[in-house]
Design a protein that fits this description.
Blueprint: E1 8-10, H1 12-41, H2 50-74, E2 76-78, E3 93-99, E4 105-111, E5 122-124, H3 128-133, E6 141-146, E7 149-160
Parallel strand pairs: 1-2, 4-5
Antiparallel strand pairs: 3-4, 3-7, 6-7
Length: about 170
């Protein structure tokens, strides 16, 4: 799993979320699945024991997720967006846009891939819309290819905020 040595950009809140998930898996889920395996093992013949096989598969999934989280955390390049500024769209920026065709306003925040969440309108820095916005300034038009054709988005405002401001407490 530790094959890539490339850094993974993320916000401080994104790193906190990964560490929280890792801690939960290691301190809660590992123990719970071990108990499930012991209970299932007590039911007898393991060859025909569906509970045992399901628990072992779940254990494998949990251990794989722990390895992945450890890798991501080790390669995290934390970028404190509250300390960013400037007049160009960069990682961590919140961008207010106007779709020039529909005249509808839309706001996106550009975050790391692990933090992307379309419901919150948080785009991965690698997403096509984010790529089209990077380096642009207020008043610029970003052209984005979408399944429905080409969209033009006019940049109205660029802000730099800490994403934890919008994250509901206890999410995850």
């Amino acid at each position: 799993m530790a094959s890539g040595s490339d850094n993974i950009p993320m916000t401080p809140s994104g790193l906190r979320k990964l560490k929280s998930e890792l801690k939960h898996l290691q301190s809660v889920e590992r123990g719970k699945i071990s108990r499930e395996i012991e209970v299932a093992r007590a039911h007898g013949d393991l060859r025909e024991n569906a509970e045992y096989h399901a628990a072992k598969e779940k254990q494998s999934h949990i251990e794989g997720r722990i390895l992945t989280l450890n890798d991501w955390i080790a390669r995290a390049e934390v970028i404190d967006t509250s300390k960013l500024g400037g007049d160009k769209v960069v990682f961590g920026a919140t961008v207010d846009l106007l779709d020039t065709e529909t005249e509808k306003p839309v706001t996106y925040r550009i975050v790391g891939e692990m933090e992307a969440d379309l419901k919150k309108r948080w785009l991965a820095v690698t997403a096509p819309v984010a790529q089209a916005l990077i380096g642009k300034r207020v008043g610029d038009i970003a052209t984005v290819q979408s399944p429905g054709g080409t969209r033009e988005l006019e940049i109205q405002q660029i802000r730099f905020e800490d994403p934890q401001d919008e994250a509901p407490a206890g999410e995850g």
